[in-house]
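User: Structure with adenosine monophosphate, tokens only please.
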Amino acid sequence: MANIILLGAPGSGKGSQAAAIIKEFRIPQISTGDMLREARKMGTEMGMLAAHYMDSGELVPDEVVIGIVKERLAMDDCKNGFILDGFPRTIPQAQTLDGVLRELGIELNHVIEIDVPDELIIPRITGRRSCPSCKRPYHVAFLKPRSENVCDDCSETLVQRSDDTEEAVNVRLEAYKMKTAPLAEYYKKSGKLRVVDGVGDMKEISARIFAILA
Ligand code: AMP
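Assistant:
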């Protein structure tokens, strides 16, 4: 069974690696960031509440994210496994998750932390762009489109996430260090934590992760 948590700083590649894992293992990716962005797009009350935290790079209050994850984990498609990407991000979230999994009779199998040095994070994030239509990811230096700022597939003008600015990234990194990094210790105690070197080619990093999941 593959019940997985992916940990790592913003820009460590959690989203890209989660995409590779769901393809291989055919399990759903539960990304709280994606769910919150979707809620904002739909204009729900929760989305509106989350918006100002997200844009400034702060964490959304625990009770908001915990609520959405609880509902999502209870869905049928999580019965054969899931990958949590961007959750938990605080110790209270991790403790609540333990309780939710116990209630649902689900055992956590792997906690994988993707480790990337700080100095690589800011250029990785601030250069990120994506196609608003097909969501294809790009980077201004590392993954350029054929013509500048235009999607190779749909010719749409690329966009930048509102929290991928240098100012918001600094706040996100601080939140990560203060609130999320202590989770490594939390999961080390349960013997589930594995740390993967997140520097290198995306496929190489996937191979490191698959070796753990195999
Ligand atoms: P991400 O896409 O994972 O980088 O998340 C983008 C933003 O959504 C974060 O900077 C937070 O504002 C919010 N967010 C996502 N997941 C969580 C979480 N587990 N706890 C609190 N805030 C979150």
